[in-house]
Amino acid sequence: MQENPFKFGQVVxxxxxxxxxxxxxxxxxxxxxxxxxxxxxxxxYGKTSLIEHVVNNLNRPYIKVDLQLVTSPEDLAAQIIKxxxxxxxxxxxxxxxxxxxxxxxxxxNPLNNEIDLSFDPASSPKPIIEDAINxxxxxxxxQKRMIAVxxxxxxxxxxxxxxxxxxxxxxxxxxxxNYVFLGSQESLIRDIFENKKSPFxxxxxxxxxxxxxxxxxxxxxxxxxxxITPEYNRIATSILEISRCHSYxxxxxxxxVYEQLxxxxxxxxxxxxxxxxLIRIHDMHYERLWKTLNTTDMKILxxxxxxxxxxxxxxxxxxxxxxxxxxxxxxxxxxxxxxxxQKSETGYEIDDPFFKRxxxxxxxx
Length: 365
Ligand SMILES: Nc1ncnc2c1ncn2[C@@H]1O[C@H](COP(=O)(O)OP(=O)(O)OP(=O)(O)O)[C@@H](O)[C@H]1O
Ligand SMILES: [Mg+2]
Prior knowledge:
Blueprint: H1 21-31, E1 37-40, H2 47-58, E2 62-66, H3 73-85, H4 90-98, E3 105-109, E4 114-118, H5 125-138, E5 146-151, H6 156-159, H7 163-171, E6 177-183, H8 186-194, E7 205-208, H9 214-225, H10 232-243, H11 247-262, H12 270-281, H13 283-291, H14 295-306, H15 314-320, H16 325-337, E8 341-344, E9 347-350, H17 353-364
Parallel strand pairs: 1-6, 1-7, 2-5, 5-6
Antiparallel strand pairs: 3-4, 8-9
Helix pairs in contact: 1-2, 3-5, 5-7, 9-10, 10-11, 11-12, 14-17
Bound molecules: adenosine-5'-triphosphate and magnesium ion.
């Protein structure tokens, strides 16, 4: 049987990847220069996939650390070193670690042949971070310059106060590394790189990543549906309409519609059937999410699900009893920070199209 041609929830490349021609050109040019890159987009637009696609073609050493899962400066140092150790012979890494100001204990995990590091908990984190960050530069060469990606970089401020200052003080001297900072919380990332008082002020070229152009997404979908249904154009259009061209949700919906179409007893309208199914699957998760909201947030999401009105318009506030513009504004800010909504070129929209439909269904039930 033909393999399902859609993939969601993991980094995509090869046949699953829609070429973002312009962005690939920009990122490649930047990484081939002496500059650093800051890429912002809402969750799951395709930052990691794009960066990895470019890096794979450049054939240069590459590490990526997701700061969301980092718990302390020492942990950050350990994560960096662990990733570096995957790129170089263990002896080389051990040698480097032996010259650290605070020499970590190294254990080789026999299951995956990876190293685990631990630092004496009594030691100060400063020299540990210093040596780990400088190791990135040290292991780079002019021919094989390292690319170091920090995902969800806005988390740096959570990990420890002034850690950003310390990182910047080190990174600014590195000549053989391109740093890439990714982030999904636009306002925080902008504050880190655009606020004059921030240590990382103008440290990298800021690049907001937009959605994949509708026409490119349409071609990708219709090409893949063509072999299994004569309705391939209608199905592609409808998937993009429902997902609003959001990379992840469009691929997810396409995946399950494809599965429906493979079924000999395929439903009359496979797209609607799949949407209902996805809402059912996520029901408990959505209910849990809903309970985390305060009343204003609920009103805003209900209003945004039931109407096309701008949440900042008078009509919106009036229709949904959402209160003063300032109240609505702070709610929008909170909802955006928590990933419920996002600001697009056309205004605010609910991130998850199935959550939006879940709200509508519940309201109309
Ligand atoms: N260029 C692309 N072509 C096709 N699908 C894509 C593309 N980029 C992203 N996607 C889809 O979106 C999903 C998320 O992509 P990716 O993990 O690269 O995004 P991200 O912005 O790094 O997400 P996160 O916010 O979770 O870090 C992928 O699993 C895939 O389904
Ligand atoms: Mg990512």
